[in-house]
Design brief:
Number of domains: 2
Number of helices: 11
Radius of gyration: 19 Å
Distance between the termini: 40 Å
CATH architecture of the largest domain: 3-Layer(aba) Sandwich
CATH topology of the largest domain: Peroxisomal Thiolase, Chain A, domain 1
Number of strands: 13
Bound molecules: oxa(dethia)-CoA
Length: 345
C-alpha cells in the first residue's frame, strides 16, 4: 500500500465545476456482422479482441457539428443555462480544415458572439478541453463554459481497413462548467496532461495538412484516411493511462485501490480498459464501460460514458471518479472529480 501523496500546492482562482451533462449518439447502428460482410474479420475476433458488438455511425451528409449541437443542447438544458461565456469543442474530425467548427456549433445553439474555438488532442480531447475550459474560468475570462467533445470518426476511417473499422465510431458528449469552489461536488481536480510527439506517426492522417501540401506531391487517395499502428499504440495506451491516473489520484490524495469509486477511462478497447484497471487495483465493478455498444468514439468517449452511466444508475452523486484518456499525438491525461448531482439533458 503506497502512502498518500503530499498535498498539491493550493490553486488560485475559481474552480471549474461540472453543472450539466449531455450526450448524443447518431441513430444508425453497425453490427459486427455488418463489418464481416465487407472485411476479412469475424464477430468472435472483434468481441474478444476489442469488446465491441455494435457501434453508432453517422448517416451520409451528417458532420461532426450536427452531433456536437445535439450534445451541447442537452448539456445546456441539463444545467439550465441559456448562454455560456465560451464554447470549447474537442474534435479530430472538424467539419472543415478551416475554420474551426466551434463557432458554427455556437451559432446553431443560438450563441453567436461568444468565444468559440476547437481543441485538437484526438482521443484525449475531452481532458485537454476540460483543462482549457478550467483555465478560462480560473483566469476570470469566463464564468460558464460549454465543453463539447464530438467525433464523426467513421468519416476518416478507411472502410477497407479492418484494424480501425472494427473499433472507431461516432458520438458527441458535453459538460457545462461554471465557476465555483474546489471543495464542492463537480469541481474538476488537478488535471495531469502529457504528450510524446516522437511517436506522432503511430496514429495519423498523413494527407491534407501543410506537410503534405508543401511537399508539392499530390496526396495519394489513401493518405486522407486515419491510420493506426494498433499493437504499438496498445502498449503505450495502458502505460500512459495508468501512470497519468496515479498522478491525478495522488494529487487528490486518493489511493486508486481503495478511494476511487468509479474509473471512467477512454473506451479504446475492452482489453486496454481491463489492463489499466488492474494496474491501478480497481475492480471490474468500479469500472464504467459502454464500449460494447458504443465503440471507441475518440474525444466523445468519456463524456458519453459519464452521461450514460448517470442515466443507468452506475454513476451516483458523491462517487469519486478517476478519468483518464490516451490517443494520437501521442497525448494523454487524467483528472478526478467527486460526481455532482446532475441529470443528463
Ligand atoms: O483510441 C486511442 C488509441 N487507440 C487505441 O488505444 C487502440 C489500440 N490498439 C488496439 O485496440 C488493438 O491493437 C487492435 C484492436 C487495433 C488490434 O488488436 P490486437 O490484439 O493488438 O491485434 P494485432 O494488431 O496484434 O493483430 C493480431 C492478428 C494479426 O494477424 P497475424 O499477424 O497474427 O496473422 C492481424 O492481422 O489479428 C489480425 N487482425 C485481425 N483479424 C481479424 C487485425 N485486425 C483484425 C480484424 N479481424 N479486425
Amino acid at each position: 500500500m503506497t502512502a498518500p501523496a503530499p498535498a498539491a500546492p493550493a490553486r488560485t482562482g475559481p474552480a471549474a465545476v461540472i453543472c450539466g451533462i449531455g450526450s448524443y449518439l447518431p441513430p444508425d447502428v453497425v453490427t459486427n456482422d455488418d463489418l464481416v460482410a465487407r472485411l476479412d474479420t469475424s464477430d468472435e475476433w472483434i468481441r474478444t479482441r476489442t469488446g465491441i458488438a455494435t457501434r453508432h455511425v453517422v448517416s451520409p451528409g451528417t458532420a461532426t457539428s450536427e452531433l456536437a449541437v445535439e450534445a451541447g443542447r442537452r448539456a445546456l438544458e441539463s444545467a439550465g443555462v441559456d448562454r455560456p461565456d465560451a464554447l470549447v469543442l474537442a474534435t479530430t474530425t472538424p467539419d472543415r480544415l478551416c475554420p474551426a467548427t466551434a463557432p458554427e456549433v455556437a451559432a446553431r445553439l443560438g450563441l453567436t458572439g461568444i468565444a468559440a474555438f476547437d481543441v485538437s488532442a484526438v482521443c484525449t480531447g475531452f481532458l485537454y478541453g476540460l483543462a482549457t475550459a478550467e483555465g478560462l474560468i480560473a483566469a476570470g475570462l469566463a464564468e460558464r463554459v460549454l465543453l463539447i467533445a464530438a467525433d464523426a470518426f467513421t468519416t476518416i476511417i478507411d472502410p477497407l481497413d479492418r484494424g480501425t473499422s472494427v473499433i472507431f465510431a461516432d458520438a458527441a458528449g458535453a459538460v457545462m462548467l461554471r465557476a465555483g469552489t474546489y471543495d464542492e461536488p463537480g469541481a474538476v481536480g488537478r488535471t495531469v496532461l502529457g504528450s510524446d510527439g516522437t511517436l506522432s506517426d503511430l496514429i495519423e492522417v498523413p494527407g491534407g495538412g501543410s506537410r503534405q501540401r508543401s511537399s508539392g506531391v499530390a496526396a495519394a487517395p489513401d493518405d486522407g484516411w486515419f491510420r493506426m499502428r494498433g499493437r504499438e499504440t496498445y502498449r503505450h495506451a495502458v502505460n500512459r493511462m495508468a501512470s497519468a491516473s496515479r498522478q491525478a489520484a495522488a494529487a487528490a490524495r486518493w489511493r486508486t485501490e481503495s478511494d476511487v469509486d468509479r474509473l471512467a477511462a477512454h473506451q479504446a478497447n475492452a482489453r486496454i480498459l481491463r489492463s489499466v484497471a488492474e494496474e491501478l487495483g480497481i475492480t471490474a465493478a468500479r469500472q464504467l464501460s459502454n464500449i460494447e455498444h458504443v465503440g471507441n468514439t475518440g474525444a466523445a468517449s468519456i463524456p458519453v460514458l459519464l452521461a450514460q452511466s448517470v442515466s443507468e444508475g452506475a454513476l451516483l452523486p458523491g462517487h469519486r471518479v478517476l478519468l483518464t484518456a490516451f490517443g494520437g499525438g501521442l497525448a494523454w491525461g487524467a483528472t478526478t472529480v467527486v460526481w455532482p448531482d446532475v441529470k443528463p439533458g
